[in-house]
Amino acid sequence: MNKILIANRGEIALRIIRTAKKMRISTVLVYALQDAGAAYLHEADETILLEGQSLGETYLNSDKIIAAAKAVNADAIHPGYGFLSENAAFAEACRDQDITFIGPTPEAMEAMGNKIAARKTARSAGVPVTPGITGTIRQLLAQYHVIGFPLLIKAAAGGGGKGMRVVQQEAELQNALEATAREALNYFGDDTVYIEKYIEAPRHVEVQVLGDQQGQVIHLYERECSLQRRHQKIIEEAPSPTLTMEVREQICNAAVQLAVAIGYQSAGTLEFLVGPDLSFYFLEMNTRIQVEHPVTELTTGIDIVEQQIRIARGEPLNFQQKDIRQKGHAIECRIYAEDPEQQFLPAPGRLRFYKEPYGEHIRIDGMLLQHGSIVTGDFDPMIAKLITWSADRETARKKMQEALQQYFIYGIKNNIAFLLGLLHHPDFIENRISTKYIDLHLAHLLQQFEDRKKEEDLWIPLAATLVFSLLHKEKDPSSIWREIGYWRPVQQITLNIEGQDMTVMIRRQAPSSVDFEYQTIPRNATLTPAGAQQFNLVLDQQLYPVHIYETAPGIFIIRYNGFDYTIKRNDILHIAADAVAPPSATATATGNIWAPMPGKVIKIAVAPGAVVHAGDLLLIVEAMKMENNILSPRNGVVTAIDVAEGDKVDATTTLIHIEGLDQASGS
Fold first, then answer.
1. What is the pLDDT of residue 662?
2. pLDDT under 70 in the chain at which residues?
């Protein structure tokens, strides 16, 4: 194997490139126009543009990808995860063209890649599964009572949480079935769905397996991925803190038993739901590398991508089950471009500032993002994966907290603060979680995070801003402030922190410190650089490490103790001008409904003249491969629809006009 074409993008493409380089194998990377200019493309030896705009024309176009491989004489294709990684027809087409597919055989994919077929295979192998049925939407509507509520709808060819919905009552069922089928067709090219019994408050535990072409199958132990939102994992860890040694052995043996039953080759993951009594049920098999594979690599010392490549080359595994040991504990946090305060709505956009953490036992699987990079709304919202390792879970948790506090993403909404709050929460520390935990407790979690922030001493970020704005920027001779007279001696300065004005009196400025008063109380602050955007603040003889980033002249973000504080100097004219809030109440009163994020309209559920009630579905906007229902905020009548299905929209686009019933009738 001399040259591998990587049929993927982003962090997993870069992850594969790095292992290939270690193995002295050259790499070719295909890319779509939306990814042109991405820094990670430069890591490949060659790149090939896939013409087209949609996924079907680019990353899901098997003919184009195979043609690209043949054009550059690549003798193997690595599909990564998602896209074509579990497409049996693609794997078979590679085989027909004498291109090595780095993954399982098409036969294994057909046996396990489709969830319906996988459940049958699991039953035959003696592995427990939850009750479930499949069929057309009409058949499922006629038979769902056999399963009973709550039930779970899934895309048969799905994975990664895509195409999955929990339904609690009959009134929700038809819309959920149609939406799941539509999402499955869009993302996987297959609209087959099935329903199964939904297990209340389960744990999600999965087992990593490796199988070679000589028939040997082993496991690399388990991972727990119970913390999820929208049925998609955000925190994973290995080993599972839930399982006993006895159940760990049982679930790992069941995974190997099932992989052996289908003659599995390559890396794969068997996923299980684990009940409160530690009973477990087969969920699905992912016949590919997993997003969360790094936690297994850090606890076993085995490079799973390297093993995929060696197995594809026909090499036998060079270790046996007895050689595999779990060492220490690893935690992975998925860093997403999304807004937890808005039900995790995707938040694409341009990065104004980006800085990753680093240090011993901290690993970043990212895509070489930097200041000015654009996180596009055309793909999954994951920015990077942050992984920490230590000798035990508690130490790994604290290491992760430290790493998250050193991770900076400004310019777009992200989930770093939310992850920090979860890692700090007693329920995570004491392992009182389930796959439903975030959905059930989101409002409480957000409030608790905000309460913790309010408990911090606001004078620390305030003092850091004061000294930085008065002293440190003055050292820049090209500063615009010199030109406009910003550095005139000012006796009184008003700082706005999180919407609260606080006025201080400046008494003395020294080369590195400021004496000031607040409500007649004298204080002294000194700020010294400690790295890029890092400073040590000494406030009244106490040391506090802070990070400072200036988003615009006179506007600062201060990170202290894991929290970000936005602080403004009110004596800057442009800040005073921007302080007037937009007339959101007026806009709402007019009945205009705007898009909550950039995306594409994929369904319009109402027509002009339709009477709607608060909470009714108006339309669906897809962003970052997630469907987002736009609901009516009020009772009224649809008077106009400004978009059509297929239109691309952004946060300034008016979608629909709704007027009150009395206004619409002209009274």
1. 54
2. 158-162, 472-490, 573-590, 624-626, 661-667
Q: CA 61: distance to chain centroid?
A: 24
Does residue 112 belong to any structural domain of this protein? Answer: no
Does some domain include residue 119?
A: no
| 253 & 286 share domain | yes
Looking at residue 638, which CATH number applies to its domain? 2.40.50.100
On whether both 494 and 554 belong to a single domain, the answer is yes
In a domain, 128, yes or no: no
Closest by CA position to 312, among listed 67, 46, 23, 105: 105
Known catalytic membership, residue 288: yes
Shared domain check, 286 and 405: yes
Place of tokens 């199958």: 217
For tokens 């594409």, the residue is 600
CATH of residue 486's domain is 3.30.700.30
Answer yes or no: do 514 and 409 share one domain.
no
- Same domain flag for 469 and 574: yes
Residue with tokens 């027909």: 96
Here the CATH number for the domain that contains residue 15 is 3.40.50.20
Tell whether 605 is covered by a domain. Answer: yes
∠ CA(475), CA(479), CA(482), 5° rounding?
A: 90
Containing 464, the helix (H) or strand (E) segment is: helix 459-467
Tell me the backbone φ, ψ of residue 59, rounded to 5 degrees.
-70, -15
List, in sequence order, every residue forming a beta bridge with 617; answer none if it has no partner: 631
DSSP class per residue in 225-239: EEEEETTEEEEEEES
User: What is the C-alpha separation between 636 and 296, in angstroms, rounded?
Assistant: 53
User: Where is the domain boundary, 578, 603, 620?
Assistant: 578
> In terms of residue numbers, what domain contains 623?
584-664
Q: What is the pLDDT of residue 488?
A: 47
What was the pLDDT predicted at 582?
35
Give the pLDDT confidence score for residue 570 in this predicted structure. Answer: 86
Query: CB-based burial of residue 80 (10 Å sphere; 0-12 exposed, 13-18 middle, 19+ buried)?
Result: buried
| pLDDT at residue 624, rounded to an integer | 64
Asked if residue 463 and residue 449 are part of one domain, the reply reads no
Which is the catalytic residue, given 223, 229, 248, 288?
A: 288
Cα angle for residues 239, 397, 444 (degrees, 5° grid):
105
Structure tokens at 257: 């038993």
Angle at 588 between CA 586 and CA 591, to 5 degrees: 115
Residue 104 CA to residue 91 CA, distance in Å, equals: 8
261-286, pLDDT tens digit by residue? 999 999 999 999 998 889 999 988 99
C-alpha to C-alpha distance for 131 and 149, rounded to whole angstroms: 12
Nearest to 27 by CA among 19, 37, 17: 17
Cβ–Cβ under 8 Å, residues 345 and 442: no
Where is the domain boundary, 153, 181, 197?
Answer: 197
Separation CA 466–CA 420 (nearest Å): 27
Residues 62 and 175 in one domain: no
When divided into structural domains, the chain yields a total of 5
- pLDDT for the residue 531: 84
Separation of alpha carbons 649 and 594, rounded Å? 9
- Strand pairing category for 266-274 and 232-238: unpaired
pTM: 0.81
- Confirm if 380 and 624 have CB atoms less than 8 A apart: yes
Q: Give the per-residue pLDDT at 49.
A: 98
Say if residue 231 is in the same domain as residue 333.
yes
